[in-house]
Amino acid sequence: MQDVVEQLQRLGMSGYEAKAYVTLVGAGKPLNGYEVAKRSGVPRSMVYATLGKLVAKSAAYELRGADDTVDYLPLPPRSLLERMRREFDDSIESLEVSLPVIVASPRAHLIHSLKGSEALLARAEDVVAEARTDLFLSIWPEEMERLSPLVGRAVERGVETAVVHFGSARKPVGGFYEHRFPSPCATAEEQEGQAGQAGQDHRLLVVTGDRRETLVGGFSGGTVWGVYTEDPAVVAMAVQYVRQDIALQIIADRIGHENMRELCAGDPELRRFLTGHGCATALLHAAGMPGAPDSTPDGRLL
Known about the structure:
alpha+beta; Arc Repressor Mutant, subunit A; Endonuclease, Chain A; 2 domains; 7-stranded mixed sheet; 12 helices; 9 strands; about 20% strand; disordered C terminus; TrmB family transcriptional regulator; WH-like_DNA-bd_sf
């Protein structure tokens, strides 16, 4: 019942209205105000005003008896949900026309921070859901599990999607490339051992939609950070980051991973720039966030 009440609140009912409506639906018979208050927890001083609002919204109806008593009957849930759907769609269609008219042109492309995993992933969902031409993602299984349904819908509506995924996926979607070279976070264990942080995850998330907006986030143990921007330069760099990573995976597949490992092992510069790719440790360190190792084993910040 509490979940239904919360969902109705999200669709515009007050808490009292939602509780009263759910009580009427669950009763299976008309109820008077006293009975609604007793069963729903709505205060008796508020129950008649609450029922009056439901009647005004046509979410409930009054049944007047011969002795002028009043009982209340709910609008059937199927009818209520269909009405809400129509009203929601009408509002969206209206806002699609009117809202852009009042939007002022930004004086600058700002970058704003996102705090916590929920805020970060919710904003990532927005970027994926709003994409209409292309999507670029650099992502780990933990985050892909949540974003995968929306990425699948983007593919269905014709969005060109490129996903570099750190590890295998149960159900790959879009233009999927498994990141296998170099081994994801190849030096993470060494870094964690030096910093006394063994067992912590270090992951980087990049989501770019329509080459117009981008989100970059990092996960390091219990630390989560993220930024979102429509700055064209940052968006272009994020797209290029994903494109070049995909190109590296294709090259490694073409010439063989063992050959690539031998090449990198014999070239210190290649090894320096490829180890730890996709990890959030360097960006965490640069942002001054806790939980990031100070350096790589050779003393350089990745």
